[in-house]
Specification:
The protein is built from twelve helices and 13 strands. By secondary structure, it is of the alpha/beta class. It has two domains: about 130 residues, CBS-domain (Roll), CATH 3.10.580; about 140 residues, CBS-domain (Roll), CATH 3.10.580.10. It has a four-stranded mixed β-sheet with strand order 7-8-9-10. A three-stranded mixed β-sheet has the order 1-2-3. The protein is flat.
Length: about 280
Amino acid sequence: MNTKNLKLSKIIIKPNTISPNTTLVKAREILLENKIKRVIVVDKRKPVGIITEKDIAKKIYGLGTKSIKSVKAKEFKPKKIFTLTRNNSIQECAKMMKKYGISSIIILNDDNTLEGIVTKTSLVKIFLTTETTPIKVSKIMKKKVISAEPSDPILLVENLLMKYRISRIIIKRDQKPVGIITFRDFVPAKIPQWIADSADPKEVQEYKFKKGFNEMDSNQMSYLFPFHATDIMTPNPVTVESDKDIQYAIKLMIKYNISGIPVVKKSKLCGIITKSDIVHVLI
């Protein structure tokens, strides 16, 4: 079967939606309860925006002492939304995702109302069920891995996420992956409370986006905000051996509802494979 030419109508899913007046608290609850990464903002059945885990994590840090209960979806800076129709192909969808560095495409009806959504997960699943050519993880993984140590301040971790525009940081000890941190780990309610109890939000913002960290900056961050990667990371991350087929990696992603897996060789970190890497194969 030619996977690339399949129509998107085969893989459209129904997204979780909110109205422009939905609060940040409610949007966060929907993400956490449903273990999803995004909600679609809909006004009169038409999509007007997307709010992701990353958006909420960034917004929380910028609130300071302002209550998150008072922030509504319409207050988020509008994101450009990318759309296709059910008649577009999987390959067209994959190309759009790669070109704009996005993880989801909104599917519109003829009257521009919301029909559904296609995500990288949708494409990865169809790849698993239709692609028969074996490809080793080592052939498509990224060898350069952005990582941190368990003792690194969490502000440094988030700075790395922002700086490199990535979705996860591998926490390693002695070259072995011992944890992973994604934007989802910055979403829970305890994060803004930590800031309120531990630091001036303006100083937090300054260090969060600072370029060119040095040892003095790291020491200052530890003083301002004494929480570390080990406090919020998911320990014992799922890993995959570099000589496995990518179908095996996909099954792990689906089973554990994750989008990226550290790649190891003899237990040592040697790369990372993500849904984006698999989507690029479809192109």
